[in-house]
Amino acid sequence: MSSFLLTAMPFTGHVAPMTAIAGELVRRGHDVRFYTGSRFRARVEAVGARLVPWRQAPDFDETDLAATFPRLIGKKGVRQLLVNMVDCFIRTAPAQVADLVTEWHRDPWDALAADETSVGAVLFSETMHHPWSTVAVLPLNLLGPAGPPSGMGLRPGNTAVTRVRDAVLRGLVPALSRPLVRALDEAEHAVGLEARGWSLDRLVFSPTLILASGAPALDYDRADRPEHVHFVGELATRTRATPAVPLPSWWADLDGRRVVLVTQGTLNTDPEDLVRPALQALDGRDMIVVATTGVPGRDGLSFPVPANTRVIGIAPFADLLPRLDLAITNGGWGGTLATLAQGIPLVIAGGDLDKPEVAARVAFTGAGVNLRTGTPSAGAVGAAVDRVLGEGGFRDSATRVGSELRALGGAAHAADLLERTARASVSPS
To answer: Structural domain of residue 118, as residue ranges?
Structure first.
């Protein structure tokens, strides 16, 4: 038996895939601790791991980030992304290090695995000279020698003009990332490390092992990734210990009907952005539309909904996904992978954070339509739905990508690789 510490920033989309790995390691008999926010205690303990909560680090609520990080008030788009990265991900890192040092001195572990936004885990590892593995719970964001910088929602160029565009954009990365570099330098200095002027993508990815959720097809089939990058497909929790989401009273309405999901995930959940125009676009169609609010228990919207719509806070996705014909989504990575793993095509309105990148990657595979905005019109949503449901190629592509995701092994493959790392860490040199 080995001991593992897994860390993830306290966001549902980060914690969920990491708990899938934690649960698999527990199933194999390992001792597993999980460092994240206290609001995820039930999820962590459901898979048999032990929660190590944020203590010195601010234990924030992902549904009300501005309460802890007031600079986010009124921010959207690029400005939101920048402030979120600096205040939430980077400036909390020294306090994360303090928490991890305390836990290490209480009971050290054999191997550490962190999501790629857990800056504190990386700084801890460098401070203690202890190796770590990265679990990429977002689209893989490694700057390579070709293609545009990840996160811009651009496909790698395939003509002379677009290849020059990509090279120019890669050259702009240092200038564009200066605010993040300054914040990282301050964080390194705060924990006693020498500031190196590194960008975030250079700092947070392990030099020895990167487990990337997703599949090569969703990374533009690039061949320039380092050998220590391993794609592991969808990281989904498969355990009876996880409480089942109860089925709503209207569940039988789905029987024998075409079913479409409309969701904005759990962050930036203003229904005016996507939910409302999507419901308007689908009003009167011969289908059942399941719309989520993203807030547990909030099973209604502030405006009247069409007769063919059913509203729920958090859908019972394990039961719902196999019944879907189409998902209209803001492009959260975890939900996108779960949907594609079932061979379901998508319409994606990716507005901010990593969402435009997700939308571009799905469109590249042919498994969905990229609306190129987070606030589409009802007409744009309706036209995209007509394309996806009317052209069989979208379903075929989604089926192909789903097969690739399932073949990569998920949490079991990730656990295999982490076990190998743990064995190496305790083997005599």
So the answer is: 3-239+408-426
